[in-house]
Write a structure and sequence with these properties.
This protein has 655 residues and is of the alpha+beta class. The chain has 14 helices and 33 strands. It has four domains: 1-94, no CATH class; 98-111 and 256-348 and 383-450, Elongation Factor Tu (Ef-tu), domain 3; 121-254, OB fold (Dihydrolipoamide Acetyltransferase, E2P) (Beta Barrel); 502-650, no CATH class. β26 and β27 (419-424) form a beta hairpin. α11 (527-543) packs antiparallel against α12 and α12 (553-570) runs antiparallel to α13.
Length: 655
């Protein structure tokens, strides 16, 4: 680094020499015997830098710009296709190229969500007054106390109950005295007795209380009310001495042996969620413990304010360890089909209750909760048909070079000499460290999972189609560690400029301001400020959803697509836990921001610059938009602040 700082002028002259083509291909061969044996000829051996493919030297050594070891490249084979490149075995080893065969497998991914524990709504009951009266004594006299079924709750004085007791006692005496009467008289006496018993039952008295009253000579003033269920008192409305009417709510009791765990899932996660998926979760309030369950319900309505959907689990809680109100962090394990949508093969041919989908049985029957007939899971749309594709063609995420909407993969072609072919593929969803491939590859083909960027650099040197230059030809791609411009603009396909309005430009300016603040913060390794800036951008974007801006239909469609992509990348901003997560989101933002700039431009007397760093994200490369020409890398920060090169300049519209 000191050498670079002390020799900026020299390095600038070297760069100029490279661009003018001063360096020739002559020179001596490698001094290493092994490499000499594997080389074809001195004239065809070229050594280049994987980070600066414009550097082409006739012998091995170090790059004069970044001092990385040079790698050998062979001259092209005339029998090769335009998108193919041959390398010697030694060059392949020096470039550390690794391949892996494509294979079909189950596409699994994990979705991380946050939520909290709530009371099971189906296990909440109110204890109400069955008759009017006065609360003489409250045995359960505070909220939070645990009660069991049959525990006494309170004593109630009620004139109506007192009168009903007297009627029962007299009816019992009438039956005893009617033994000498006719059969008709005895039948009427027994009917009166049974009616008196039933009247007390309807007033909430238990059979044992009725029997005790029936055997007494006189009624009692106070009636004890017992709990009809076990649970925790979550609300207490009555107080001693208060008069209550029929139906007055005195207690609310919740059975916490089963609780609900409710997660907030963002709308971008919806394609990956399905009923019955396995979920694991933990809580800071219960350290060292992990719990498991399955999704029992997905809310059919999206919350328009938070842009989230409630996802519920029913969790057994026999020990009361999981308390309502605590926050939890969950991981949903999703299996995706070929279209990137969640499937649930474990529930195939199962029987589900339409009213209570958490009730799952292997055979036809009735619901244990409501008694409804169970139906097939396929009928409810919970799972797909058994013939639905479960396995997908998968490749490592590191094998993909993405730029804009294009995805490039390098495939090793079978043969004596290592030959690599660039393929443009159509990708599905990213599942962990893999991508689903929809088209462009076949099972068993060898894709480059490490060193693909070096191959792409060699393709650029050979003026062949590459990631950044799909049509081939000289691209002038380099990698500037010193923040110095290359002197050439990278040619990009022209995008039609669309007309905008004053209101749209105001919104565009706010979005760009938040983007540039995030860019500057990331370059300074400021996690908090970058996270806040992206969150602020999400707020601005959300406010534009209902705005039309009086744009043309074509411009509106373009803006809607860009806005939706921007919202998708910024939605999770509040939950970012590290600067790496912010940088990953910023990469997605940059693609949409660049498209926004290319489509609508910007209203300013200053120019904006598109900068590309090929080393970002494990050499996959990433671009960003900058207000200044100097390179301040947001993907590396201080660790590699000047990694990048200006690829394009965007002139502002006159004010």
């Amino acid at each position: 680094m000191n050498f670079i700082q002390n020799n900026k002028k020299t390095i600038g002259l070297i760069l100029l020499a490279f661009f003018l083509g001063i360096w020739s291909s002559g020179g001596r061969s490698s001094s290493t015997g092994e490499l000499t044996q594997e080389s074809h000829s001195i004239e065809t051996q070229v050594w280049t830098c994987s980070m600066h493919p414009n550097v082409q030297l006739p012998e091995a050594g170090q790059c004069p710009i970044c001092f990385m070891d040079l790698i050998p490249l062979e001259s092209g084979n005339s029998s090769l296709k335009p998108n193919q490149l041959s390398m010697s075995e030694s060059a392949m080893k020096l470039a550390s190229i690794e391949t892996v065969p494509t294979a079909y497998g189950i596409a699994e991914m994990e979705i991380h969500l946050s939520g909290k524990v709530e009371v099971d709504e189906s296990r909440i009951k109110n204890i109400t007054a069955w008759v009017p009266g006065r609360l003489e004594r409250m045995f359960v006299d505070y909220t939070g106390i645990t009660v069991n079924k049959g525990d006494h709750l309170m004593e109630l004085y009620s004139p109506e109950v007192y009168t009903a007791q007297e009627e029962l006692i007299q009816a019992r005496k009438l039956v005893v005295s009617s033994s000498g009467q006719s059969a008709f008289g005895q039948k009427n006496s027994r009917a009166t007795l049974e009616a008196s018993r039933e009247k007390l039952r309807l007033m909430g008295l238990l059979d044992k209380q009725i029997k005790k009253i029936e055997s007494s000579e006189s009624p009692t003033n106070l009636i004890t009310v017992y709990s009809p269920m076990s649970g925790v008192v979550i609300q207490k409305n009555g107080v001693e001495g208060a008069y209550v009417k029929t139906g007055t709510n005195i207690y609310t009791i919740a059975d916490l042996s089963t609780v609900w765990v409710i997660f907030d899932a963002y709308e971008s996660d919806l394609p990956w969620l399905a009923f019955g998926q396995k979920v694991t979760f933990s809580a800071e309030a219960i350290p060292g413990e992990k719990f498991e369950g399955r999704i029992a319900f997905i809310d059919p309505v999206l919350d328009v304010k938070t842009r989230t959907v409630k996802v519920r689990m029913n969790v057994q809680n026999p020990d009361g360890l999981i308390k309502p109100g605590i926050f939890v962090h969950g991981t949903i394990h999703a299996i995706l089909d070929g279209d990137g949508k969640a499937i649930n093969p474990e529930l195939a041919n199962k029987w589900i209750c339409p009213m209570h989908p958490e009730v799952v049985r292997d055979q036809k029957g009735d619901c244990d909760v409501c008694g409804m007939d169970l139906v097939k899971s396929e009928f409810m749309g919970i799972v797909h048909t058994p013939n639905h594709q479960v396995e997908n063609l998968l490749i490592p995420a590191s094998a993909v070079l993405k730029t804009g909407n294009r995805a490039i993969v390098y495939v090793q072609i079978p043969g004596n000499e290592p030959t690599f072919e660039g393929r443009e593929v159509v990708l599905g969803s990213r599942v962990g460290d893999k991508y689903i491939v929809k088209s462009g590859l076949k099972e068993g083909e060898l894709v480059v999972k490490k060193g693909n960027f070096k191959i792409d650099s060699a393709m650029q040197i050979a003026a062949k189609p590459s990631m950044m230059n799909p049509s081939g030809g000289s691209s002038g791609v380099g990698h500037n560690h010193g923040g110095m411009p290359s002197g050439q603009n990278h040619e990009m396909p022209a995008i039609e400029q669309l007309e905008s309005t004053a209101s749209f430009r105001k919104a565009q300016t706010l979005i760009a301001d938040a983007y540039f603040i995030a860019e500057d913060a990331l370059a300074k390794d400021n996690f908090k400020e970058s996270k806040t800036a992206i969150f602020a951008m999400n707020i601005v974007l959300s406010a534009t959803i209902t705005k039309t801006f009086d744009l043309s239909d074509k411009a509106t469609n373009k803006w809607n697509k860009i806005r939706d992509n921007l919202i998708s990348e910024t939605t999770h901003a509040q939950h970012f836990k590290s600067i790496d997560e912010v940088r990953k989101a910023f990469n997605g933002l940059s693609q949409s921001i660049l498209l926004l700039e290319q489509s609508f431009g910007h209203e300013s007397s200053d120019s904006y610059y598109e900068i590309f760093c090929p080393m970002a994200f494990n050499n996959s490369g990433a671009s960003w938009l900058s207000k200044v020409k100097d390179v301040n890398n947001p993907y590396f920060g201080a660790s590699m602040l000047r990694c990048g090169e200006v690829k394009r300049e965007y002139n502002g519209k006159s004010l």
